[in-house]
Design brief:
The protein is mainly beta. 14% of the residues lie in helices and 47% in strands. The protein is globular.
């Protein structure tokens, strides 16, 4: 037993000279000590020699593959609701087109005017809806996609690279993604508001055929999924969940000389609303359904919020101040409020979850907001100011230009600026 144990525990010495070419071995003297040696427990000499040549590369490739799989897996999980074949192809299209060189910024606007709400950024590109054209511009100023339109009061809604363009006060609308228009149609009745989901489903609010207003929810191909009629309430804004199976609708009506707004939550596999909440003397301007399960409705005197898990709405009053700008993105709400109508200091409220918001004091009126990651950008006069959304601390400032109308962060350090007649790109930090 002792002899067998001793044999198993014996360690074989593999010398590098034993695996060198013959020419090099001949130059060595028998007395020359080995320059290096590697030990392998109980393995044949030839197998150990193979490990000398391939162990490091294999380990490197193995680690690289694991890292790539982890990154891809995380990306797929985060964007799981929007991973349709159409969205994947759209992403490929925009990235390939976006890689083609342009002449740089500034880029002149196609058309004569762009409203503040029709300017945004997605995938590192600038997205612009003017009075005559819908255009996506790449980081080098290249035209990734452009589509002429005949909408006289165009409105843009975006979610995960899906775009809804509709004619407010008229019937026309179109759906675009990537570098193509997927659908162009008429709503039949004048459009009041609209929304698009991350998976390409969309919804339109129209003048009612029999009541005050109608809600129609569509699948990606334009097929009607759900309809609901409001007898006395006019829809002012709406939002869809990422998968398009749920929605929040904001409405308004007059009751006894008083303005009554209402939030109605739907599950589109049910005929009746899941819940409703009324807010008095508070005109609801915008809504969102975040992937984190937070629902928001921004009013002109208070903000409403609830969790999708319990749908118990609460109100946060602005205490007599009025909103100057707001942004609903990433399951969070950013609202700038001011006690003054046209000038004076602003307070930026950042609602990240339930509870009191982070308050950021700005020295002047905030005209526009944009968000990227944990950074919120505010257009204040001629400056773009970046803040940390979690702490409220100022991060950086940059000149936006005297004609700056709006901003769109393409990253936490770069931004697009909408001027009177052009789009500019600036580095903030």
């Amino acid at each position: 037993m002792a002899k067998h144990s001793e044999k198993r525990n014996r360690r074989k010495i593999i010398q590098l000279k034993d695996h060198q070419p013959e020419s090099l071995r001949e130059e060595e003297t028998p007395e020359e000590a080995p320059k290096a040696a590697v030990e392998y427990d109980g393995e044949p000499e030839e197998e150990a020699g193979q490990k000398m040549g391939w162990q490091a590369p294999k380990a490197f490739y193995r680690a690289a593959v694991v890292l790539v799989v982890l990154v891809l897996g995380l990306a797929l999980w985060v964007n799981r609701e929007s991973l349709t074949p159409e969205n994947i192809w759209s992403w490929v299209q925009t990235q390939v087109m976006g890689a083609q060189g342009g002449d740089g910024y500034p880029v002149s606007i196609t058309g004569s005017a762009v409203s503040q709400g029709n300017f945004t950024s997605y995938g590192g590109n600038a997205v612009v809806l003017s009075d005559t054209a819908f255009t996506v511009l790449g980081p080098s100023g290249q035209e990734v996609f452009s589509q002429r339109h005949s909408l006289n009061q165009p409105v843009l809604k975006e979610a995960a690279g899906n775009y809804l363009l509709y004619n407010q006060g008229s019937t026309g609308y179109l759906i675009a993604s990537g570098t193509e228009v997927r659908l162009e149609d008429s709503a039949g009745q004048d459009i009041l508001a609209g929304a698009v989901a991350a998976n390409g489903r969309f919804a339109l609010a129209t003048q009612g055929k029999e009541g005050a207003s109608d809600l129609t929810v569509y699948l990606e191909n334009g097929e009607v999924q759900f309809t609901y009629s409001f007898a006395q309430d006019y829809i002012t804004s709406l939002a869809l969940s990422a998968d398009g199976t749920s929605g929040i609708v904001c409405t308004v009506r007059s009751q006894g000389g008083e303005l009554v707004s209402k939030v109605t939550v739907f599950q589109f596999d049910q005929a009746d609303p899941v819940t409703q909440y009324e807010s008095r003397d508070n005109l609801l301007l915008g809504a969102s359904w975040g992937e984190n399960g937070m629902l928001y409705a921004v009013g002109d005197s208070s903000l409403l919020w609830a969790r999708a898990s319990d749908l118990a709405f609460s109100e946060y009053s602005y205490q007599g101040r009025s909103p100057t700008a707001f942004r609903l993105e990433g399951g969070q709400a950013y609202v700038s409020i001011s006690a003054y109508e046209h000038a004076g200091a602003s307070t930026l409220l950042v609602f990240r979850n339930a509870g009191d918001p982070v308050e950021i004091q700005a020295e002047a009126r905030i005209q526009a907001l944009s968000v990227s990651g944990g950074t919120v950008g505010a257009l204040i006069g001629q400056e773009l100011v970046l803040y940390d959304a979690s702490t409220g601390s100022e991060l950086a400032r940059a000149d936006a230009g005297s004609d700056a109308q709006s901003i769109a962060l393409s990253s936490e350090s770069n931004a697009y600026v909408l001027g009177v007649s052009e789009v500019r790109r600036i580095q903030v930090r």
